[in-house]
Amino acid sequence: MSELNQAEDIRQLTEKVREQNYFFSLLKQEINKAIIGQEYMVDRLLIGLLGNGHVLLEGVPGLAKTLAIKTLADAVQGAFSRIQFTPDLLPADVVGTQIYSIKDNDFSIKRGPIFANFVLADEINRAPSKVQSALLEAMQEKQVTIGDETMALPKPFLVLATQNPIDQEGTYLLPEAQSDRFMLKCTITYPDFDDERKIMNMVASGHSPEIRPVITLDNITEAKNLINQIYLDEKIEKYILDMVFATRFPEKYGLPDLKNYISFGASPRASINLSIAARAMAFLKNRAFVIPEDVKEIAKDVLRHRIGLSFEAEAEEITSDEIVDKILGKIQAP
């Protein structure tokens, strides 16, 4: 009887998923007007939006990272701000500051650009540690403290950051504590030949597509609430936990060679975000339940920035993606 009830619940949930997924299909179509050949990046931005998680995009210049984030904000009826990170940026330039008014003989708070639904942190690795630490409270607690006043940030609140992996002059490594706050770290690659031809022709024609708002904040809130209801079987939960624990104790999972390459494994945020991201992936594929392929597809994006590489790994040019590949190959999917 319980199995019949569960099947009926999944059937009803599937109808709700299809109803809400319609709005996100419109959103994806609208984004694809301006973004050509970066479906992977667009899907990850939507997963971050659905999972209420921040997204870090890494790739060489010219891959439409900034354009994709700006287009997403334009297609959603929410407040958008862009912060261009530079070495001389101050925390007050991000969160805001207190301003003294001679007329009122009192201090007032001037809010910074962090007070928006979508915050584009462009080239985030160019900011010094003081600015990085100022972002931590905002990203984790969804609030900002200026002076003795603590203010909640608007909902939804999403930091979409970019960083350039090839230009190291004037850049700072993101602290591990801050990297862990990003739900996903996505590595963006070049478009293929045909897509780049379309991009070239679109720019040469001078055509700039108009992006219209096609989804409201209420639609996003309803979809987020639905994500938490998507069915995650106990076997899938174990699969996720095995994957995360294999980054901490690889020898217990038949991967003793990896122990010398990992200085520290993924934190509990990895298992939390992997389950949320897998649910969001299932939602985007019009399903009310998670399958192992959802977990596999999103695993690298959740884990690559949460695995600390040892000096030996760096000396042998072993990447965190290769480590995740070995873990995926070893742990049997349910």
Number of helices: 13
> What portion of the residues fall into strands of 2 or more residues?
15-25%
Terminal CA distance = 24 Å
Going by CATH, the homologous superfamily of the largest domain would be P-loop containing nucleotide triphosphate hydrolases
Radius of gyration: 21 Å
- Work out the number of β strands: 11
Please state the overall shape, judged from the principal axes of the Cα atoms.
Answer: globular
N-to-C order of helices and strands: HHEHEHEEEHEEEHEHHHEHHEHH
Low-confidence stretches: none
Report on the structure:
The chain folds into 2 domains: 38-201, 3-Layer(aba) Sandwich (Rossmann fold); 230-330, Orthogonal Bundle (Helicase, Ruva Protein, domain 3), CATH 1.10.8.80. α2 crosses α10 (268-284), α10 packs across α11 and α11 (292-303) packs antiparallel against α13. The radius of gyration is 21 Å and the shape is globular. It has a 5-stranded parallel sheet with strand order 2-5-8-1-9. The chain has a two-stranded antiparallel sheet with strand order 3-4. Strands 6-7 form a two-stranded antiparallel sheet. Helix content is 47%, strand content 16%. With 334 residues, the protein is α/β, with parallel strands linked by helices. A hairpin with a 4-residue loop joins β3 (96-101) and β4 (106-111).
